[in-house]
Structures are given as C-alpha cells and as structure tokens.
Amino acid sequence: MAAPETASGRRSTASLGTIVREWGRIGVVAFGGPPAHIALLRDLCVERGRWIPAKRFEDAIAATNLLPGPASTQLAIFTAWRVRGAVGALVGGLCFIVPGLILILALAALFLGSPPEWVRGAGAGAGAAVAAVAVHAGVSLLGPSWRRAIADGRWRFVAYTVLGAASAATLGPWLVLVLLACGLVELGWRGLQRRLANGLPSVQPLPLLALAAAAAGGGFASLAWVAFKVGALSYGGGFVIIPLMQADAVEQYHWMTDGEFLNAVALGQVTPGPVTHTVAVVGYAAAGVPGALLAACIAFAPSFLFVLLGADRFDRLLVNAGVRSFFDGAGPAAIGAILGSAIPLALALQHAWQAVVLVGAAVLLFLVRRGVVFTLLAAGAAGVVVVLLGAPVD
Prior knowledge:
With 394 residues, the protein is mostly helical. It folds into 2 domains: 16-99, no CATH class; 120-387, no CATH class. Helix content is 74%, strand content 0%. The protein has 17 helices and no strands. It has helices at 16-29, 34-48, 54-65, 71-111, 117-128, 130-148, 154-170, 175-198, 219-232, 241-252, 258-270, 278-310, 314-319, 321-340, 342-347, 352-367, 372-388. The longest helix has 41 residues, at 71-111.
C-alpha cells in the first residue's frame, strides 16, 4: 500500500537502491523514443509502484513539454524527484541517461574511427534513412499540436511552422533565434490581446528563454555552446536538436562529415534513452571522450536544473499564461524545424543507392507503419548488403 503524500506532494516510499534498479532498467531498455519512455515511467510510477497519482503524472507530462530540452528525460528526473526528492532526482536521472550514453560512446568510437567496410555500410544505410525519420517525427507531432491550437491562432500556427521549416533548411545554427522569436511574438500578441480586452499586464516568459548569444569562436567553448543550445534552447525536444547541430558540427566547425553526422543521428535513435545522446557523438567527433562527456553534461544539465529548481512550481507553470503563450509560438516553429531538417539531411546523402534506401525507409514508416528503430536497423542491414556487393561508401 502506498504511503500518503507529504505536504509538498512527494512520496518517499522507495529506497535509493530501488531508484538505481528501476530507473537504470528503464535506461537500458528504453528504445523507441519519448513515447516508450513515458509508457515505461507510467507503468513504474503509477501502475506498479503507485508512487504518483495518474492525474499528477499526466500533469507532469504537460509541464515537461512546456520546458525546453528533452521532455522525457525531464519526466524521468521529475518522477524520481517525486519518489525520493532531490537526491532521487539526481540518481534517477543519471541512471536513466548513463546506460545509453555508454553505449552510444562505444558505437561512436566504432563508427567514427577506422571501421571495417561492413560497419561503414551499416552507418551509411542507417544514415540514409534519417531524413525519413525526421519527417515521421514532425508529422507525428503536427496533428496533435494543430488540434490543441486555439481557433483564432491557427493562421499564426501555420506561419510559425513555415518559418521553422524554412529556417531549419537554410539558417543552420541561427535556427535557435527563430524559435525564440516565434515564442516571443506569440507572447507579445497574446499580451496585447489581454491588454486590449481587460487591461491586464502580460506575463513575462522564464528568464532563461531570453538567452540567445552568438556561437563561441572555437574549441571547447564552441562545443559547449552547441550543447547548451541542445539542452536549454531546443523547444519540442527530440529531432529539433538535429538542425541545431548539423550546421555547427559539419559546416561551421568541421568536426564531422555529412555522412558522420547522419551516423550520429541514427545512433541517437537506435540506442536506448533520450535522442539527446546524439550530442555526445558530436562531442566525440570534436574532442574525443572528453568532448563527448562535456557535451553530454552541458546538454543534460538544464533538465536537472529545471526539475530541481522548479518541480514545486509545475502546477503554476501549467496555468502560467506567459509560458503557455511562449510555447504556443516556439512549439509550432520547432515542429516546422523538425520537418525542415529533412531537407539538409537528404541533401547530405552522397550515393544513389542511399536515395533508394531513403525511399524504402519512408515506405516502412508511412505505409507499412513499422517503428523507427526497426526502420533504421533495416536500413543499416541494407547498407551492409549493398556495400558488400561492391557499392561505394566513401
């Protein structure tokens, strides 16, 4: 039987050993992205552990989706906080993140080193499917977001989405400024409407949302800036980090080739845990293991800070008109960015056979309705076969 809630709404019914075991288990088996993560956390915390009431769990999903950064990671940290406070949040969050991070670093060393021909073929095949996966991710978000949009704001929803898509396809590292601008425009528009209606002052967004700076000149500072954008300024989570990283990693700082970046995105999809692990592969390409660890620490740090400093205020976050207005602008722009990222990802393909794999991946995702992990593994297997038959991979 679950213990009663404390005044703060937390339940302290699980030992740290339980946190390590259960959140670590999810970190190992959580293939499939945010929907799988949410389902596993709900089964653990609501159904089996009975630590969190279903309504509070749904509210937590809504609150973490209003924050920048990887929402399912923030949900894992928040649920551990509810069970065991700040220490539980730190331990649970790390147990959720670290297994996938270790695996993706091992794979990065394999794929970015001097791999055998069949490994390079697997990477080129999986990388070829990434553009289709991006479109699939964007489309899956577009419908629910459109239905939630207020009736008189749908024309702005379309405008923000188009701006996000165009920016992801053309602006590269400056995309983050477009996301912030769309959020601020919607915030200003709603504030003006409220003032015209009843004279109420507009609510300002979270202070962090005002952060937007030029990228640093090079080295670890540049890597830190790229990771910061991923962790603290990426609205929509998941695939929206791809256009934020691609121009920086490939074009501006030349840490990776186009093919290597596609491999990094594919590795982030097929490993367990958050897709944000992709940033560790970029860090590895930039500065080896120290770069990977630095990038991961900076990218995930805001998620811990948001929960540790703001979890008690999540209820207020959900009804904060300013925060919701900001996200109503930044959210559609982020979805557009995910869709738009498919263009540079597809243009990065180097061989005709990869285009065929891309078409096959689209068929699997949209017509056959297979999952992302299955599709990427199938594309990787196709790449192995094609390269062993003599197709080029360089």
